[in-house]
Amino acid sequence: MSNKEDIKEEEKNMEVVESTTEIPVEPTSEELIQQEKDKFLRLFAEFENYKKRTSKERIELFRTANQELMTVLLPVLDDFERALAHIEDDKEAEELRKGVLLIYQKLINTLEQKGLTKVETKAGDTFDSEIHEAITQIPAPSKKLKGKVVDITEQGYKLGDKIIRFPKVVIGQ
What pTM value is reported for the model? Predict the structure, then answer.
């Protein structure tokens, strides 16, 4: 009898094992639709991020190209300013001064339309290492000028919000 009981017990155990093993259930059509919708939304979001990133890169490329051109043209502006300062002394060259001034103003206006502006610096301003580039220090002519800008040797320029050339200044000690 014990053999019969053992066999019956084994059969019961097998039934329990068979009932606990899961048969793979196929996803419903709603679940499949939800999965595809999720994939689509992720792909769409990824594409939107790509478009934003490439447009930012393109704008930055145009700014950089503009900056290189402006940097190359700055010595020409300096030469015009020196020429105008020299011609001011010569009263016989009034017509020449007017012509050079006209060309200089035209060049300045064109560059300003493209975003170039002067960094406003004058003698007596407090020296700021974020804005100015100190080329030398001299004894201050007066106590008021200690740690301040005494002279500007080269103008500084900004392109948009970025300084592309710092003004070169002499500061009082």
Answer: 0.62
Rg (CA), the chain: 39
Pairing of strands 168-172, 156-159: unpaired
State pLDDT tens for residues 85-120. Answer: 888 877 778 888 888 899 999 999 999 998 899 998
**Region class of 124: left (phi > 0), else alpha (psi between -120 and 50), else beta:** left
Pairing state between β 133-138 and 156-159: unpaired
CB of 131 within 8 A of CB of 165? no
Q: Is the pLDDT of residue 20 over 70?
A: no
Tell me how far the alpha carbon of residue 66 is from its chain's centroid.
13
Cα angle 13, 15, 17; round to 5 = 70
At 159, is the secondary structure helix, strand, or coil?
strand
pLDDT digits (tens, 9 = 90+) for 22-39: 666 788 888 889 999 999
- Amino acid in the structure at residue 94: E
Q: 């974020």: which residue's tokens? A: 130
CATH of the domain spanning 116-173, picked from 2.30.22.10, 3.40.50.1980, 2.60.120.260, 2.30.40.10: 2.30.22.10
